[in-house]
């Protein structure tokens, strides 16, 4: 009996020890699990990134758009005269150049004296004018006499009509001779010389005569070329591979080496649909306003043509694109505690727009364009 009681007491002690052991084990497990959850929550909380109000005020956002893809084509070329506003001055008569009053690059007004030429032909022109004046006076007197005889019945109607016709011819010849004389006459009344005058206002862009030269009216050579440089042309070269991108009316930006910081605006107003057999290029013409005469014929010009491709793509501001680890990224905005990094596959970048060929972003998504790199680095480190 005593042994049985001892055995029972021993079993009770063992059960109590087991109870205490499992109780302690459960308590330690609960404590460990609780600590583990707490650590996980803290870790998840640490991953959540919120932009401070002070920084958020400086962030700029923009919207992803679907736009037609624009393109640029850069062409080389030269500044040229506006040939519509160019006049070549030829000699009126053969002779000896006595004086040249202008030089290359001078600005002249219409009617201004350019050169003095001594010519024996001027005397002949004067004689023709004097003869025409005498013929006019004789035909006028004859018409008056014939008219009086016709009214008194002493002359026929045919005689009167003939006298009228002769007077009309003499009057036309006199007017013509005097107009020619005005062109040739020198201000000093020197009947053996004549002045070359500017037919239009503009710049002397070419001069082919000097004092002492002999000139001929039948040689076909001009003495001066005058151009109004308020408008100039740019003749740009287009290679075969780029011809399909060029159309009449496209906008063009022109820059010259002398004015690297300035862009001149124009449009393509003519496409020369012929290839140069030697250079294998086609020319296009851009008309530019040149009110300050900055652009000079002969200058080299770089012409950028703006054209539109026949496709539409997602586009974002180029300022929003971040390049890192050989990839391009944008930061998509949901709210100030929710930003997302998304890779993009760029089709091309043009000025301030970037066209996207492939990405998870969609039209109307909002992306960060200013301070995006700061947010990108903060999210990357988390």
What does the model show?
The longest helix is centred in the first third of the chain and has 46 residues, at 2-47. Helix 3 runs antiparallel to helix 4 (157-184). Mean pLDDT is 83; it is low at 1-9 and 24-47. The chain has helices at residues 2-47, 53-56, 121-152, 157-184, 372-381; strands at residues 60-63, 65-81, 86-89, 95-100, 107-108, 113-118, 193-197, 202-207, 214-215, 224-227, 231-239, 251-256, 259-275, 281-289, 300-317, 322-324, 327-335, 338-350, 353-359, 366-370. By secondary structure, the protein is α+β, with helices and mostly antiparallel strands. The two termini are 72 Å apart. The chain has 5 helices and 20 strands.
Label this structure with key terms.
382 residues, alpha+beta, 6-stranded antiparallel β-barrel, 4-stranded antiparallel beta sheet, 5 helices, 40% strand, elongated
Which regions have little confidence, pLDDT < 50, spanning 5+ residues?
1-9, 24-47
Number of strands: 20
Order of helices and strands: HHEEEEEEHHEEEEEEEEEEEEEEH
In helices, the fraction of residues equals: 25-40%
Q: Tell me the radius of gyration.
A: 47 Å
Shape designation: elongated
Residue share in β-strands: 35-45%
Integer average pLDDT: 83
- Biggest sheet, spatial arrangement of strands: 2-11-14-13-12-15
> Main sheet, how many strands, which sense, barrel?
6 strands, antiparallel, barrel
